[in-house]
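Q: Second attempt. The first request was missing the SMILES, so the protein and flavin-adenine dinucleotide are both included now.
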Amino acid sequence: MTLVDRWEPGHSRASSSDYNRILRAIHGSDEMYTRWVREARLRWMELEQELNTELYIECGALILAEEGHSTWEEVTMPTFDKLGVPYVRVGPDELPVRFPQFDFRKVAFGLWEPEAGMVLAHRAVTETFKQFLREGGQFRRGRVTTDETETPLLDGKPLSADLVVMSCGSWLAYLFRQTLGPMLKVIRQDIVYTSTPDGDRSFDADQMPCFVDHGYGAYGVPSVYGWGVKAAIAWHATDIDLDDEDRVVDQSAIARSRQYWAYRFPRLANEIVIDQKACHISMTPDTHFIIDFHPRHSNVLIVGGCSGHLFKHGPMLGDYVAGVGLQEWGTAPRFKIGPRTSMPMSESPSGR
Ligand SMILES: Cc1cc2nc3c(=O)[nH]c(=O)nc-3n(C[C@H](O)[C@H](O)[C@H](O)COP(=O)(O)OP(=O)(O)OC[C@H]3O[C@@H](n4cnc5c(N)ncnc54)[C@H](O)[C@@H]3O)c2cc1C
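A: Got both inputs this time. The predicted holo structure:
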């Protein structure tokens, strides 16, 4: 098996290269992703044992349901009940007692998922890559291109293999413009890490959960290894040119993050920015992934359309893709290449 990548796996341009990614089962009414996350969580833990390195930190996740707009959280609870996912609905009086780091203005209730947390994303990529090599996988640094028929080429020649899996993250939108153009929008999302008050451990992952702040359109992760508290203000995503744009977080994103800290975490209001990351996401209209054979090339399997929620599913997605690629099963209708439309909040898997 040969892995081809333009750069070294784990490089800074990839979506997977930030320190961490949230793992939480909350997917609204969608049972399939909810089940996948529950299984993926165990697989990440097994992988930690196998590779003898920390890859997953179970700090829990707190979803903040906005006053008057809590459909997604409301439809999640019956799904959790049905699938046996542990959670607690925490009312507005109890929230500040349990989670004193937050200011809960405009929050109707919190959905606390204790068996959630963060996957140490960059480390997971580099460690699994090493494992791939140890198990005999070959790595080739190279840039795959496509011709006018969207045949994948390496060094100007068609890639010849029984199966070619094209999982090029957001670059898929450039490689398969005809086929995926209408399905993929590539957006930029800036992430900012803030310091925490001297001597105050309450923002560390053993005391604070990951959070999804639906009303504000933000999400974030507590501090581990002194990395600081991370926040992304998701509603302010813009377009990005993947090959020509500097990966530098702009001042307006920093200003928005500061505004957010002051609003939601008053004790972080005067802290400083200690790290940052300019990231990108390929969004599909319905936020379902793409796992399907190219309509004109029966050995080319396209995998992507992460829509900002794919990393945590990694171990499950890998198995699923292998099954589709080896034709042990077909792909699910939701993953097929074809026209898609956005979903109402009551059906959305991602809450977007
Ligand atoms: C800001 C942000 C926050 C997110 N938060 C979460 C979260 O909390 N939880 C979660 O589960 N997910 C989250 N995601 C989504 C998650 O990060 C992505 O789903 C995941 O990283 C996508 O992985 P990938 O391998 O498809 O893409 P990438 O990590 O981008 O990797 C694509 C690879 O393909 C290579 N490549 C591209 N083009 C070519 C070419 N032509 N030839 C050769 N190689 C090529 C690249 O070099 C790269 O190594 C988030 C994403 C972002 C950006």
